[in-house]
Amino acid sequence: xxxxxxxxxxxxxxxxxLAALALPPGDEVLMTAVTxxxxxxxxxxxxxxxxxxxxxxxxxxxGPEELEQAAARPRVRALxxxxxxxxxxxLGPYADIAARRGLLLVEDCAQALAGPRxxxxxxxxxxxxxxxxxxxxxALGGAxxxxxxxxxxxxxxxxxxxxxxxxxxxxxxxxVKALVAMALSGPRAYGLAAALASGLGTDVGELVRGAxxxxxPAFTGWLRRRPCAGLVETMARRTGPGFPTERLARRxxxxxxxxxxxxxxARPGSALASTHWLFPVTARDPxxxxxxxxxxxxxxxxxxxxIRALGPAPRMQAAMAATVFVPAYPELGPDAMGRLAAVVRRxxxxxxxxxxxxxxxxxxxxxxxxxxxxxxxxxxxTPQRDRAIPATAWVEAPPxxxxxxxxxxxxxxxxxxxxxxxLVWRAGPAAHGDARYMALDSANLSRRxxxxxxxxxxxxxxxxxxxxxxxFRAWKESLRDAPS
Length: 484
Known about the structure:
single chain; alpha+beta; seven-stranded mixed β-sheet; 16 helices
């Protein structure tokens, strides 16, 4: 596989790396604060000390001064950077500090595989990629380690050759368990699993992930094995013709659309481009958000992944405590994605009542969709409190209304109300996000006016009077005052 070392898992590769380094006990390994707890556990198993660096939740990277201060500790020997949720942070500052301080730079790309030829950042000494059960190019296990220091690569390979080989039947059993867990992630099956977990007095995430491994001997014994031939062959296929290029592109597009539908609010990694391996959002009450989404059959979880914020890291510990992972995969479809976005917005951390809506009425996008066919004459004069009418339900809907927000990442346009003779539709949130309104003359549907609303509250659109209006109120008044 192009010179990479095929390992049983990223954790196995990391254990192998530390064994080959043979650092003196008491030396320190600097780690970005959000990672799999086993990564810290492995460091400690080698007699080393973990030093964590807190992150900015928006960039998922530490501040330069914090990183520099931590790297200046006299016994720090390595720096481990974990790329999170499908994002890739800029390795430049890490590489500069590692070079100046003589540190080994390791990037954990378990969540960030971006293509079949993705070997990691060449500025890193070691890049680790996972092919575990829920990863982008899953082989239901396995990892690749790209090691750019020849002597270290040789030492790792020599140590690896002394480890026993995973039994094929162990890989087969793990594969069956993983496939069952993946099947449970579908909306309908996940709803059933959530109900079963509740009846058993446990959490659905724990039910799907299974019990943790037992004590230290079992843990290290599990790590220190080579992958069987079947697993190696599967990883080779998944990094070649079997790489899911098309689905990765669709997943990234679906995640981008959901991010746009949420209006760019604060969430972990919001400042970075992402392939959206996971889609994290923050909520005022994470448990309530999870309950609402699961009631819709959506596999929301506070523990969709086993990564944690390791302390002391107050910023990321607070962010992760408020984080819920929601499904942003393309198979959801536009209606389900719209419901997902509406529920998340309602629970948004620090969110308030959208501008232009009364406290007694939820925004249109937060109401259940009513797909019953409706003709122009039957569209109601005022907003509906208990439902939302999508453009796809309007029998006479022109294509321009159905696709009103497609370029903004909002696949569903919703009916708002009549203003005079005009039918007003909106794609996108009522405030704090990209949105577009369209008003159509009910007597002549080819006569239309649009208004574009931006996340910062600015907007512009041509009214029924032919003038361009910056204020939304003035645009609506032009509809009201238009002659019949």
